[in-house]
Each structure stands twice: as structure tokens, then as C-alpha cells.
Write a structure and sequence with these properties.
The chain has about 325 residues and is α/β, with parallel strands linked by helices. The chain has eleven helices and 13 strands. β12 and β13 form a beta hairpin. The structure holds oxa(dethia)-CoA. The site of oxa(dethia)-CoA has 20 residues, from α2, α6, α8 and β12.
């Protein structure tokens, strides 16, 4: 049986750090509130002139370098993002051009914070179906440009960054991506979305001035559904593979809020040392959180051959999903 295996990881975080103390000067909030309610200390902000495609390209280059392959060998590039360089064409095509990955086809996936898990599922299915041998899967976001920096309910949470993995087919069927599970429920649209600019809310100075175009979230409502969905989809992955929480070497959840991660881990019955958390450093980078965390854990030597790695994500749509990997 053919499976898709991760052979390289890479990430790129912008240099500019925005701390909670910086945000104290922008809106009516405190470092203590942000730390207590979210676990976030600081986040990265893309430099002027730095775009999602730039960060995605840097992360992809690092993943390719680790895998020891050249961009021309890549058959497919899938990029999970809700903050692409343009409404269209796909930012994945810009990355393809930057990398000179001339033998790949490339597209974006819009699944908000679940974008990377969705992209990984699509790329894995593509390789398993025998349609190609190598794929790049990326999560990259510049959320700082769609966040309303006058809205304390949302601006404290988000940051920018990118992560990427190289996927290659393997005949060793015990290794690689064991399963992907994806779900969505469009009835929750109003709890988390960006009204502008699309074809419903077209660009106007008024929509910018009154802030109606920016990211909107009803955080406490999202929180409840997030914990429930992340728990369910994580258990779904374990059950589908005849495993339980004790089999998990490392749980790498979408990094939205430390309280969400801790509540989810507790419900799945995972110990603290089974859970990877870096939300304190980067905040919520939507589709980028999981590949960035995976790259950090990998480069720190925390992912060893044969380890069971569980990824779970939840985001706007609502969308949610999980991936179970034997590393
Ligand atoms: O990536 C996936 C999608 N996003 C998420 O998963 C985020 C999910 N939600 C959350 O992380 C949390 O709901 C938040 C961190 C956004 C908010 O925490 P909360 O414990 O749910 O607080 P809350 O929204 O219920 O607000 C509690 C209070 C309110 O004041 P009142 O009405 O009780 O007087 C807010 O106005 O906290 C106030 N508040 C703030 N105070 C200081 C909201 N934001 C802030 C702030 N600083 N930044």
C-alpha cells in the first residue's frame, strides 16, 4: 500500500515581535488579561513589503532543504491560507513561481485555521492515489493585515507566519499519514468571518473607516464549539486507527488559545508532556500554527521514526479536521 510520508519540515516567522505590552498601548487591554485568557505573550508581525507568498516560500525552501530534494521534483503544491497575496490567483501559484517548481500544479485551500490539515489531507490522498510522488503542503498567513487593531476582542490573538512540509510516497505502509478526517458546518458563519472584501461587501472607503471589512469573531461562542470539535475529531482519528490516547507520542493542535488546548487535551486524556504548545510565542497564526509547531518539534528532535503524531485543527467556516501520522 502506498502512503504519503513527511520527509522535510520548514517554517518562517517574521522578525518583528509585537508583545502584549505593545498592544496595551493600542487598545484597552492588559498583559495580565491576555496571558490569563489566552496564554499568549507575543506574536510576529510581517514587515512592510513582506507578504504571505514570501513567508510561504521561505518555509517551503527550508522543508525542501531538509528533504534533500529540488523544487522541480514537486508534483503538487497545496497552500492553506485565508490571507493570500490577492483574492486570486492562488498564492500557491506565486510560491510555485518563486521556487521554480515548474512541474507542479498549485492551488490554495480556504479552510481558515483548518487550512493546513485540509491541505495535508488533499495532498496525501493525491499521492496515495498514485497521481504523483512528491508534494509541498504549506500553511501561511498574514493575519495582521485583516485584523482590526482597534478591536481588543480579536487583535490580541493573531499573528503572522508560515510552515511547510514535503510529502513523499513510501511503500512502507506502516509509516506516514495513517488517516485524515475533515468536517465543516456552514451554519456558524457569523461567529467567525471576514465580511470584506468579497462580492457581498465590495471595497469602499466607508467599509474600511467603520471597520466592517475586518475579521469578526464572537470568541466565547467559538471557544465552546472549538473544544468540542477538536476533542471529537481527535478521538475520531484514534478510533479509526484502533489507538487510544496513550499511543500518542505528540499531539500538535491548532494553536488558538492555551485554554482551548488544555481543555481539549484533558478531554482526550493526554498528559501535558504529550502536547506541543507554542501559542505563547506566536499567538494564533491560523493555517500556519500546525506546520510551524511541527517544524519546531521536529528540529528539536521531538519527532522520532515510528512516533504517533496527532494533528487537530478548528477554524472559521466552521471547519475542523485531524491527521494521524506514524512519523
Ligand atoms: O482559531 C480558531 C478561532 N478562534 C478561537 O479559537 C478563539 C476562541 N476564543 C477565545 O480564545 C476566547 O473566547 C477569547 C480569548 C477571545 C476571549 O476570552 P473569554 O474568556 O471568552 O472572554 P469573553 O469574550 O467572554 O469576554 C470577557 C470579558 C468581557 O468583558 P465583560 O463583558 O465581562 O465586561 C470582554 O469585553 O473580557 C473583555 N475583554 C477584554 N478585556 C481586556 C475582551 N477582550 C479583552 C481584552 N482585554 N483584550
Amino acid at each position: 500500500m502506498i502512503r504519503a510520508r513527511i520527509t522535510g519540515t520548514g517554517s518562517y516567522m517574521p522578525e518583528n515581535i509585537r508583545t502584549n505590552f505593545d498592544i496595551e498601548k493600542m487598545v484597552d487591554t492588559t498583559n495580565d488579561w491576555i496571558v490569563a485568557r489566552t496564554g499568549i505573550n507575543e506574536r510576529r508581525i510581517a514587515a512592510e513589503g513582506e507578504y504571505t507568498s514570501d513567508m510561504a516560500t521561505r518555509a517551503a525552501e527550508r522543508a525542501l532543504e531538509m528533504a534533500g530534494i529540488s523544487a522541480s521534483e514537486i508534483d503538487l503544491i497545496v497552500l492553506g491560507t485565508i490571507t493570500g497575496d490577492y483574492p486570486w490567483p492562488a498564492t500557491a501559484c506565486i510560491v510555485q513561481n518563486n521556487l521554480a517548481a515548474n512541474n507542479a500544479h498549485a492551488y490554495d485551500i480556504s479552510a481558515a485555521c483548518s487550512g493546513f490539515v485540509y491541505a495535508l489531507g488533499c495532498a496525501s490522498d493525491f499521492l496515495q492515489a498514485g497521481r504523483g510522488k512528491k508534494a509541498l503542503v504549506i500553511g501561511a498567513e498574514t493575519l495582521s493585515r485583516i485584523v482590526d487593531w482597534t478591536d481588543r476582542n480579536t487583535c490580541v490573538l493573531f499573528g503572522d507566519g508560515a510552515g511547510a512540509v514535503v510529502l513523499e510516497t513510501t511503500e512502507e505502509s506502516d509509516f506516514g499519514i495513517l488517516s485524515s478526517h475533515m468536517h465543516s458546518d456552514g451554519s456558524y458563519l457569523d461567529l467567525l468571518y471576514q465580511p470584506g472584501f468579497g462580492t457581498r461587501m465590495t471595497p469602499s472607503a466607508e467599509n474600511i473607516d467603520n471597520r466592517s471589512a475586518y475579521l469578526k469573531m464572537q470568541g466565547n461562542e467559538v471557544f465552546k464549539v472549538a473544544v468540542r470539535s477538536l476533542t471529537d475529531v481527535s478521538l475520531e482519528a484514534l478510533e479509526a486507527n484502533g489507538m487510544s490516547a496513550s499511543d500518542v507520542s505528540l499531539f500538535i493542535p491548532h494553536q488558538a488559545n492555551k485554554r482551548i488546548l488544555e481543555a481539549t487535551a484533558k478531554r482526550i486524556k493526554l498528559d501535558d508532556d504529550q502536547v506541543y504548545i507554542n501559542v505563547h510565542k506566536y499567538g494564533n497564526t491560523s493555517g500556519a500554527t500546525i506546520p510551524v509547531a511541527m517544524d519546531e518539534a521536529n528540529r528539536a528532535g521531538m519527532l522520532k521514526s515510528g512516533d504517533i503524531v496527532l494533528l487537530s485543527a478548528f477554524g472559521g467556516g466552521f471547519t475542523w479536521g485531524s491527521t494521524l501520522i506514524r512519523w
